[in-house]
């Protein structure tokens, strides 16, 4: 088979939007010979390089650098379930590629969100379980847990996680567990002043080292393996400005948010006072989330965040937090 024909086949598989492509088809093409492998690697890339989400492993890889991936979240209030989709266009959100689902559970005074690859199987014992989000009893602090170790040697936060990944999961060869990868906290507002929310995120982000044109590209199996170290990053919500004529707090979502809500937010990198000149950029929005309908919300994210991390952060905004409204 000519490499041009193989390239067209792989391109069609990679562009599949309505479902996850069958991984074995791509792997089979890449295993035939070195020439076919080079063609496959040149097309199937990580979201950081291609700006696309092709395989489940892409959900835990950093998003693109130059422009955000535009997603949306559908909420089902009846069963406290949330569905993340990759949008096809910036304006039409009635259909998209399903990415992740989450369901809210009450654990006494605490709240948990179980995140899964399967929209119909949302439990921590599921083969599609990818992580969870857990709140404190006030609902002002959330901890994000990954089912995979974020780096080599990471210890699980719970001893109840000795299961193995099944074939549906992101990395079948890595033992399952609950590994803490970040925290999201909201400023406690006991007096309930009518100012905007204030939130702070401490995250362990996936590696974002770039591959130059001269360096050999890693295949997808290498991309999904946990790195020896991962970067820690602090994000905070971008402060809105008071709009005097409208008598409200405003943020510029560039048309992606159409309904005013206390849940709407934009996250930017916080300035690090320990670094010379600080480290952060208030102009680059790394994650924005906002309401566009009764049960429809947009979610746009970029490097260094992954789709899984961005979804978990957005889920914190759905909790009933009387102390931080």
Automatic annotation (TrEMBL):
Ranges for domain Tubby C-terminal: 59-320
InterPro entries (UniProt xref): Tubby-like_C (IPR025659), Tubby_C (IPR000007), Tubby_C_CS (IPR018066)
Protein's recorded name: Tubby-like F-box protein
Family: Belongs to the TUB family.
SUPFAM superfamilies: Tubby C-terminal domain-like
Protein source organism: Macleaya cordata (Five-seeded plume-poppy)
Annotated stretches, region: Disordered: 203-232
């Amino acid at each position: 088979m000519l490499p041009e024909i193989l390239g067209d086949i792989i391109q069609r598989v990679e562009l599949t939007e309505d479902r996850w492509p069958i991984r074995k088809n791509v792997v089979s093409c890449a295993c035939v010979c070195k020439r076919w492998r080079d063609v496959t690697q040149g097309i199937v890339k990580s979201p950081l390089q291609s700006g696309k989400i092709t395989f489940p492993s892409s959900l835990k890889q950093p998003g693109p650098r130059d422009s955000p991936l535009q997603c949306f979240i559908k909420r089902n209030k009846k069963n406290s379930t949330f569905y993340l989709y990759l949008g096809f266009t910036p304006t039409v959100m009635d259909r998209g590629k399903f990415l992740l689902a989450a369901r809210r559970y009450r654990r006494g005074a605490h709240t948990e969100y179980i995140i899964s690859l399967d929209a119909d199987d949302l439990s921590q014992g599921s083969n599609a379980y990818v992580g969870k989000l857990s709140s404190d009893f006030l609902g002002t602090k959330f901890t994000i847990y990954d089912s995979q170790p974020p780096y080599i040697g990471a210890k699980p936060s719970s001893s109840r996680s000795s299961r193995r990944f099944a074939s549906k999961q992101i990395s079948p060869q890595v033992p399952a567990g609950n590994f803490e990868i970040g925290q999201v906290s909201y400023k406690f507002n006991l007096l309930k002043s009518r100012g905007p929310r204030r939130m702070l995120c401490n995250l362990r982000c996936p590696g974002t080292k770039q591959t130059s044109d001269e360096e050999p590209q890693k295949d997808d199996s290498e991309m999904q393996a946990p790195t020896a170290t991962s970067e820690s990053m602090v994000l905070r919500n971008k402060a809105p400005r008071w709009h005097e004529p409208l008598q409200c707090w405003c943020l510029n979502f560039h048309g992606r948010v159409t309904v005013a809500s206390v849940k709407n937010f934009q996250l930017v990198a916080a300035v690090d006072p320990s670094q010379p000149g600080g480290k952060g950029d208030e102009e680059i929005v790394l994650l924005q989330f906002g309401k566009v309908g009764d049960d429809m919300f947009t979610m746009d994210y970029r490097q260094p965040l992954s789709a899984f991390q961005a979804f978990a952060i957005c889920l914190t905004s759905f909790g009933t937090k009387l102390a931080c409204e």
